[in-house]
Design a protein that fits this description.
4-stranded parallel beta sheet; binds norvaline; binds phosphoric acid mono(formamide)ester; 2 domains; 5-stranded parallel beta sheet
Amino acid sequence: MALVFEKPSTRTRLSFEVGVRELGGNPIVLRGDEMQLSRGESPRDTALILSRFVHAIGIRTFEDELVEELAEYASVPVINMLTAGHHPCQALADLQTIRERFGALEGLKLAYVGDGNNVANSLMLLGTKAGMQVAVASPAEFAPDPEIVARAGDVLVTQDPAEAADGAHVLYTDVWVSMGDEADADRRRSLLGAYRLDEALLARARPDAIVLHCLPAHPGDEITEELLYGERSAVWDQAENRLHAQKALLELLVTSRPRNLPASG
Ligand code: CP
Ligand code: NVA
């Protein structure tokens, strides 16, 4: 499996590398800036070439359109390992973690508090598909993409973290400044300051609520240290589940699937 990284990663890289090895495959990590893609080779040609050498392609990049173009021309599965718009593999591990804790997903309330970013988008799309109620609390300027909200369907979008957290089974947050958003870091920090997972917010959730964060965390910013390391935190299981969820995904997409014919161009 080719694992193309145009952004940093700890968990995604480790979980894919380890997962592919555990399934008996060979992961090949490719840094975007070491590929001809960075010198203008087209996504189409990159997809055709990679398809001749590997059985699956994972890519972490900026633009969603690049992943879509690779997928259009590749003859092997292309997996989004995080883009500006989505982080689907993270959401798979998140749902696995929630199901481990509550036994089922249907009818549970997930409250995401913070930047309406890629992680929020994937949680809205996958959470609602799994029958969960998803609420997203963000400042207006960093609210989730209305098109994704509409696609997800039954999502509560609010500017009030308390409204989102009320009666929630899961409280979730992510960084205030995502990779690629560094230019407006100061504005994000000032507007997102009121969107922190803390004890007061946890008190609004159900007594058995769990706390999730996709990591990397910035204790004191989007989550307090008490919650991150506290007894309601399922964050470390959540991180480990990246491995298990992705192995299941690879089993579905690659291992149990007939090999494709080579791409013709
Ligand atoms: N949660 C997540 O995707 O972590 P990494 O950026 O370390 O891969
Ligand atoms: N929203 C974050 C997630 C990191 C795993 C980012 O895109 O940087």
